[in-house]
Amino acid sequence: MDHLTxxxxxxxxxxxxxxxxxxVTLGFLTYQMRQNSRQMRMNSRILVGGYAGQIxxxxxxxxxxxxxxxxxxxxxSLSNDDQAAFHAIMMGFQMNFFRNAAYxxxxxxxxxxxxxxxxxWVRILKCPGAQEWWxxxxxxxxxxxVRSVENLVAISTQPPLIEVVPFLRMS
Length: 171
Hints:
This protein is an all-alpha fold. The protein has helices at 6-59, 62-73, 80-105, 111-125, 128-137, 143-155, 161-164.
């Protein structure tokens, strides 16, 4: 039987301790990745809430609801002040959409989340007044983004928002 030298014995113990350290490190990294994934899922729920929060803000105020309803029907029939207020509402929805698209590219939101965001934005843009607004505002947006949005609207089978939400129709 060979006798191990002291240096060989220390080397064997070192390898054993190193292997344990690797296992512990991998366990810790696995835990961290799970925590990160959970946090990202939570963040995506918050992002989806951006549209919900904005629509709740518009619909919880009678004046904003009335303005939104009139603007969705006919942007050009609004006064200058009302066009400005409707523009602010629409810009909020547009920013939510483009933010979610950027987050999708970064892997922060899922394809499913983005599909929901697209459907919401398309339903709005299919309304006559929103179409008028889009024709005016699209000249201020990156051409690639305009093409992307217009392609979504063109291929979508979604009905206009005023058909989906009866209380947004003009009576």
